[in-house]
DNA sequence: ATTGTTTATCGCAATATTACAATGAAAAAT
DNA sequence: ATTTTTCATTGTAATATTGCGATAAACAAT
C-alpha cells in the first residue's frame, strides 16, 4: 500500500532506514557530497550546481533536514546549509556497526 | 514525477543511492540483519521471523537481489538466502569513504 | 512603497513503493 | 497421479516519492 509498517520494527531499524533514505536518491547524494566537501556552509548556490529545478532541490533539502543530517541557517535573503556534524557521526557509527555484524565466511552459497 | 533522473548524475552517485536503498526500509534492514547474523544461509524461515506476509517478504528479497547485496540459492523446495560478501564489502567501502569526505569543523552554523 | 533576490510551499501529474490475497510453478513425498 | 511444501508472480489498492511551474514569504535595497 506504499505505507510502511513502522510500528512493527524496532526503533533502531526505523532509524537506520531513515538515515539510509538520506542517501537513497542520487540528488541527495550529490547535495550531501557538495555540503561535505566544503568547509563552510553553502549559501544557496546548490541549485546552480544541480541539474534540477529550484523547487525540487528545496524539497530534497527539506527531507534531509527532516532526517537531521543537514542544518539550515537563515541569513536573509539566503539560507546557509551545512552538514549536521552530530547526525553525520551518528550515521557513520550506525552504518559502521551495521556492516560489522556480518563477519563473512558463509558456509554455503 | 516519481521518476528519478538517473542520467544526470554520476555512476557513483546512482550506485550509492541504490546501495542505500537496500537499507532504506525497516523490513529490508531486518532481513539483512537476520542474514548477516547467521553464519549459514537462511532457508526460507524469514517469513516466520518477520511480521509481514510471504508475498511482501519475497518482494523485498527480490529488491535486495536486484541490488546484489544478497544471493539466493535454489534448493527445492526451499531457497537459501545469504549475504553477498562482495557487494556487502562494496557497500562498506562505499559508505566508509562517503562519510570520510566530511572532515568536520565547519566554520559556520 | 516598490523592486529585486532568494527560498519555501502549493498544486498538479506521473511514476514508484509497499502490502497482501490469490494464484502459479517446481519439486519432493506420499 | 495427487498432495504438500515452499517460493515467485500477478493483480489490485493505497500511499509515497519525484519533479516542476506558479506562487508566496521574507527581507534588503532602493
Automatic annotation (TrEMBL), chains A, B:
Residue ranges the record marks as coiled coil: none
Pfam families: HTH_5 (PF01022)
One example GO MF annotation: DNA-binding transcription factor activity
InterPro entries for this protein: ArsR-like_HTH, HTH_ArsR_DNA-bd_dom, HTH_MetalResp_TranReg, WH-like_DNA-bd_sf, WH_DNA-bd_sf
Keyword Iron-sulfur: no
Top-level taxon of the source organism: Bacteria
Domain HTH arsR-type: 8-102
Listed Gene3D superfamilies: Winged helix-like DNA-binding domain superfamily/Winged helix DNA-binding domain
PANTHER family: REGULATORY PROTEIN ARSR, TRANSCRIPTIONAL REGULATOR, ARSR FAMILY
The protein's name in its UniProt record: Transcriptional regulator, ArsR family
Organism: Siphonobacter aquaeclarae
Amino acid at each position: 500500500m506504499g505505507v510502511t509498517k513502522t510500528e512493527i520494527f524496532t526503533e533502531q531499524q526505523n532509524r537506520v532506514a531513515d538515515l539510509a533514505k538520506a542517501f537513497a536518491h542520487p540528488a541527495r547524494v550529490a547535495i550531501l557530497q557538495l555540503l561535505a566537501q566544503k568547509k563552510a556552509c553553502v549559501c544557496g548556490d546548490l541549485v546552480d550546481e544541480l541539474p534540477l529545478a529550484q523547487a525540487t532541490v528545496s524539497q530534497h533539502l527539506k527531507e534531509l533536514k527532516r532526517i537531521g543530517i543537514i542544518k539550515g541557517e537563515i541569513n536573509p535573503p539566503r539560507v546557509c546549509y551545512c552538514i549536521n556534524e552530530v547526525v553525520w557521526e551518528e550515521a557513520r557509527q550506525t552504518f559502521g556497526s551495521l556492516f560489522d555484524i556480518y563477519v563473512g565466511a558463509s558456509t554455503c552459497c
